Amino acid sequence: MPFGALGSVHVSGEDWPAAAEAFAEGIRTLTPYFLRIPAAFGDLMRILVEMYQNACNEGGITIDEALLAPLLPYLRPPEEGEG
């Protein structure tokens, strides 16, 4: 089962730790591909990151900043005046 789908199943049952871990595993799996071709995987990565952060926030779980750090430069919205 894809990690996003599995995480969503856990969200529906309010099992926040399992949801966060499923989304984190999806992020870990997708990261090398995303970093090579951000445009191809950007939408999926944005969704996984958002769902991961939401699951962590709902469950009172500390967000793994090291997991997200290499992704953030690619996922941040453009600043005013950029592209």
Description of the molecule:
It is a single chain. The protein has 83 residues and is mostly helical. It has one domain (3-75). It is built from 5 helices and no strands. The protein starts with a helix and ends in an 8-residue tail after the last helix. The mean pLDDT is 91.
Secondary structure category: mainly alpha
Count of individual beta strands: 0
The end-to-end distance, rounded to whole angstroms, is: 37 Å
Runs with pLDDT <50, length 5+? none
**Count of DSSP H/I helices:** 5
Please give the share of residues in helix. Answer: over 70%
The arrangement of helices and strands along the chain is HHHHH
Shape: globular
**Largest pleated sheet:** none
Sheet-strand content, in percent, reads: under 5%
Please state the average pLDDT score.
91
Radius of gyration: 13 Å
The oligomerization state is single chain
- Taken together, the total number of domains comes to 1
Give the helix/strand layout.
Blueprint: H1 3-12, H2 16-36, H3 38-59, H4 65-68, H5 72-75
Helix pairs in contact: 1-2, 1-3, 2-3
Characteristics of this structure?
mainly alpha, 5 helices, 0% strand
A few lines on this structure:
With 83 residues, the protein is an all-alpha fold. It has helices at 3-12, 16-36, 38-59, 65-68, 72-75.
